[in-house]
Amino acid sequence: MKREQFSSSLGFVLAAAGSAVGIGNLVAFPVMASKNGGAAFLIMYTFFVFFICLPVMLAEMSLGRHTRKNPLGAYTEIGQNRAWRTVGWMSVITPFMIGVFYLVITVWIFGYLGKSVMGQLNELAAAGSFGNFINSNELFVYMAIVIGLTFAILQGGVKQGIEKAARVLMPMLFVMLIALVIYVFTLDNAMLGVKFFLIPEFDKLTGKVLNGALAQAFFSLSLAMGILITYGSYIQKNNNIVHAGKMVAGLSVLVACCSGLLILPAVFSFNPDIQLSTLSESSISMIFTFLPKIFLAMQADIGYFGASFIAAFFFLLVFFAALTSLVSIIEVPVCSLMDQKGVSRRTALFSLGAAMIALAVICALSFGRVEVFSNLLSYGGINKSFFDVVYDIFYETILPLNGFLLCLFVIYRWKKHNLDAEISQGNSTFAGSLLQKYVNFSLGTFIPLILAVIFVNTVSTIFFGQNLLF
Ligand code: PHE
């Protein structure tokens, strides 16, 4: 069977941007930036995106397009030994498991969307509402709908499913985001938030903050999850990988910036005297506890109906972003199963879907409902739920490890000249360019080094309660 392909470079860019733009850009980024130096954080983040993440991105896309395979297939074909095959397995299991917790968060967002549409804003803004919601039976109804939607998109395949969804959802997302930014700018005191976001405070950039910014950039571009290898395997040979990669990175930063201009003005118009240090670090509490309060407060101006409308509009925006990310991450194991076992898309979707639903249900029950899942393990001096364990192991720990191994694999196993040859197809100016030298050098030296340091420090911090660096 001929491998499916994106219809054009734009098709790939939208799909990959769909993957990149997610809860990370829309919520985690503004929260981090506001607490850690505003524009100074933004500058460092942008620097990391282009100087550290972009080379990794190009490497993943090239590896996929060259082998025309999923991560497991690509590592097996080029690696030619058990060790690299194991790394291939890690690059398929990691997105599967990250998919599980991302699915649960997407379900929460969808639930908040549903409740805002039904006019239950009062309830959403009430204390304790989030905790009640994530432990309610209603959650499973929302979960069934999100799973149904995700699988319907994936069943459509590359062109008719993934690309089509991205072509519809991404432009809508951009328009909605801009519309919301314009709206919050009209609110009282919005400019205080803009000022806060745009005035750089370089002294806030500690080692810890820089580490966080890099991790955020890495996660946000969907690196080391096998996604760009998989999507790369659907890119046409005459498309320009460098150009497409820069577009995806640029769009991701742009969306992150716009959401800073959305969230911070909203926060300041709600409370001009707010001390940002009192805001919680977590994007979860930002979306699900703090923002609903802001939406409810808007009713003084625009009435309950207007406030519910704005809330629904916002949650729909975040839901679109999360859905396209969820699709991309589940496509990795789906594509792997299809390639490696020769099964149909439908069979792959159903078998992986069943496993994923089982794990997502366990996650959903691990917030106090079922004791064994809620207090699964204890390490680093903290009791962890099943959800926490999945997050700590696959997102925090294995992601930088996968990134580190990917750099070594591409440069020292696949070899620089093969990488260069693949990127040069569709890009006649790459060979001999400064970019080529930079990509080759960085991927073989300091990028894997940085990722290795992050990996070691994360293991030590999370599992042994000892931060070696800060
Ligand atoms: N880029 C996504 C974000 O910013 C992260 C992600 C991508 C998560 C794909 C899961 C799957 O939220």
Describe how the helices and strands are arranged.
Elements: H1 9-20, H2 23-35, H3 39-67, H4 71-79, H5 82-117, H6 121-125, H7 129-134, H8 138-155, H9 157-185, H10 190-198, H11 207-220, H12 227-232, H13 241-270, H14 283-297, H15 299-341, H16 345-364, H17 371-374, E1 377-379, E2 382-384, H18 386-424, H19 434-444, H20 446-464
Antiparallel strand pairs: 1-2
Helix pairs in contact: 1-9, 1-13, 1-15, 2-11, 2-13, 2-14, 3-11, 3-13, 3-18, 3-19, 4-5, 5-8, 5-15, 5-16, 5-18, 8-9, 8-15, 8-16, 9-13, 9-15, 10-13, 14-15, 15-16, 18-19, 18-20
Bound molecules: phenylalanine (PHE).
Structure, explained:
The protein is mostly helical and 470 residues long. It has one domain: Sodium/glucose cotransporter (Up-down Bundle). 78% of the residues lie in helices and 1% in strands. The chain has 20 helices and 2 strands. Strands 1-2 form a two-stranded antiparallel ribbon. Strand 1 (377-379) and strand 2 (382-384) form a beta hairpin. Helix 2 packs across helix 13 (241-270), helix 3 packs across helix 19 and helix 8 (138-155) packs across helix 15 (299-341). The chain starts with 8 loop residues before the first helix and ends in a 6-residue tail after the last helix. The mean pLDDT is 95. The chain binds phenylalanine. The site of phenylalanine has 14 residues, from helix 1, helix 2, helix 5, helix 11 and helix 15. Residues 19-20, 22-25, 98, 102, 219-220, 222, 325, 328-329 line the site of phenylalanine.
